[in-house]
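Deviations from the work plan: none for this task. Representative record:
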Amino acid sequence: MSRTEDNEVLRALLSEIVDERAGTLSREESDALFARIEAAIDAPANDVGSDTDERAKAEARRKGFRVLRGGAASVVGGLLAAAAALFFVLRPGGAPGPEAPRGSEIVEVDFGMNAGTHFTVEGAEGEQLAVVWIDELEGF
Amino acid sequence: MKAIKHALLTAVTLCALLAIHAPALAEGSYEANVLIVLAKEESGAIDPALRNLSALSRPPFNAFKTMELLDRPKLALEPGGQSELVLPNKRKLRIELVQVLPNGRLRVKVSIHRPDQGDYLPLLHVVASENDPFFIVGQAYRDGTLVIGVRISSAS
C-alpha cells in the first residue's frame, strides 16, 4: 500500500470518528465548544500583542543602557586614567614605591691638594647628613 | 558611532599631549638653598636663623660657640644643569644637579674654585634626599671657618 492510499484510509477513519462524535453533541454543547475555540484563537493573538509590547519596552530599556554617550565616556575615562598613570610614572620619583631613604651621603670626593675628611651628622629626624671637612690655614 | 569616534579621537589626542609633555614635566625645576655661615670657636651668639638646624648643634659643630649667618642665596637648578655663586672669600661654588633618581633622590656635584689657584674642592659627589642638606666646612675666613650648607628642594 502506497503512502497516498494510507493517508486516504486514515482520513476516512478520522472523518468517521468525528462525524460519529459530532452526532452525540447537543446544539448548546456544540456552541460552547465553538465559543471556547474562538476564545482560544483570540487569546493567543492578544498575548502575542502583549509580548510584543513588552519586547518593545525591554528593547527601549536596553537601548537606554547602551546610550552612546555613556559608552564613549567609559572609553575616554579609561584612556585618561592610563594617561594619568603614565604622567605620574614619568614624574620625578617615578611610580609610588618604597619610601626613599632620607638624608645625604657622599658618593665621591676629591680633596685636591688639601687634607680633608668626611663623615655624617644626625639631622633633626635621625637622618644622616653628609659633611666634608677640608682644613685650611688662614691666608694659605 | 560618530560620537564614539569623536570621543576616542579626543581621548587619544589628550593621551598623546600628556605623553609628550610628561618627560618635560618630569625634568622639574629645583633650587639649591645655600647657607653660608661664619663659625668661630670663641664665645658669642648663635644666629637665631640657625637654631632649627639641629645638625649644627651636634659634634663636631658644637665646638663652634659663635655662628653668624652671612648669606642665604638660592640657586635655580635644572636636571643636567649647573649654577654658580661667589662666596664671601671670592671663591666660586658650583652646584650641578646631575640626575633625579627613580626613587626621587638627587645626585649632585659640587666644587669650589679658587681664582688663579688650584681648586679648594675639585669634586664632591653627593646623593641627597630633597630638603636634606649636606655641609662643606673648613675654609678659613675672617678669623673663623666657613660652614656651607646646601639643601636642594623643588622650586615652588
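Confidence is low (pLDDT under 50) at residues 17-26 of chain B.
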